[in-house]
Design goal:
- Homodimer.
- It is an enzyme of class 2 (transferase).
- This protein has 358 residues and is α/β, with parallel strands linked by helices.
- The protein is 41% helix and 15% strand.
- Helix 6 links the parallel strand 3 and strand 4.
- Helix 4 packs parallel to helix 12 and helix 5 runs parallel beside helix 6.
- The N and C termini lie far apart (57 Å).
- 43% of the residues are buried.
- The chain binds pyridoxal-5'-phosphate (PLP).
- Pyridoxal-5'-phosphate binds next to helix 5.
Length: 358
Amino acid sequence: MKASVEQLQPYVPEQPLAELRRVLGLKKLVRLSANENPYGTSPAVARAVKNWDFNLANRYPDADARELRRAVATKEGVAPEQLVFSVGLDEMIVMVSRTFLAPNDQVLVSGPTFSEYGLHAEIEGARLVTVPTLANDHVDFAGLAAAVNPAVKMVWLCNPNNPTGTVESLAAIEAFVRQVPRETMVLIDEAYLDFVPDAVATTAMQLPAKYDNVVVMRTFSKAYGLANLRIGYAVFAPRYAPTMQAVRLPYNLNSLTQVAALAALKDQAFVAETVRKNAQERSKWLAYFKANGYQFDESAANFIFFAHPRAADLAESLKRNGYLLRTGLRPGWLRLTIGTANDNETLRRLITTFDHPA
Ligand SMILES: *Cc1c(COP(=O)(O)O)cnc(C)c1O
């Protein structure tokens, strides 16, 4: 076994919901801990999956995902050859870590952020260097730039950031990219970009064509509601895309996944409706936290990060009442996925009751 994996703290995945519900003895249990789409999945995806020709099950899938590639390239305004697909964005994090990291390299992040960047850095024998976020939980770009040195091979920017929900402007990101040496990869994880009020002006999608060392990543797991089907992608500069295709397993995306993602992409009305409802509910939550004197981060995503003097007890109480929130990301703080209007209302009532017992 390689030394770097002996002490590994694994990513803790979500427990199967039905099983947990049974264990807790609840009729209803709502998971607001994984940033999933509470409005389900486009019905067009179900139709596409059902209509898939099962006679192809014994044949390998299209290794290049040609149809999906064309559709994504058109939508995002990038060249089809710049796209690399992965089994969830998770797999892309593995692939880039494997490609760009060697033992004793450094990986730079603004923290707190998504834990998988650090996990896969560690597996490659690299060291994670965390620059703490500013007081308002935005990225300390000056601090990040100061931490760049020749050992730093990758810088992760999660935008909007998980778990804070904060979003950085494209101008701030591009200004940072200009300060980073061309040999240092800047990986921009846009898993939640669809939820940003001005997504078109915020995305860094056009940067890889301008800067070889920039990579922009997306997933179908959040706004598109395909978390179970596992599909994500990244946009690379022409210089790196062929190498990434060589690192990728040739048949990583099965045909059902490709068909599902294509149908999801074509149903932009579903995505727009998800984004609209999320924004409406996000406003209500932010107003609630403000009105009740909570410390919270200004979120542009489908989740909110907030502090509570008895965070662990609150999470436990909400769980017993049928709502799962994410704990363990920062002491005294919880991350809440924005749910449906009904669930949010119930949840706010539960929180108020917890804070002011009758
Ligand atoms: C959810 C998430 C991903 C990965 O999602 P996949 O389901 O693997 O596509 C990547 N980055 C961030 C920040 C996430 O929150």
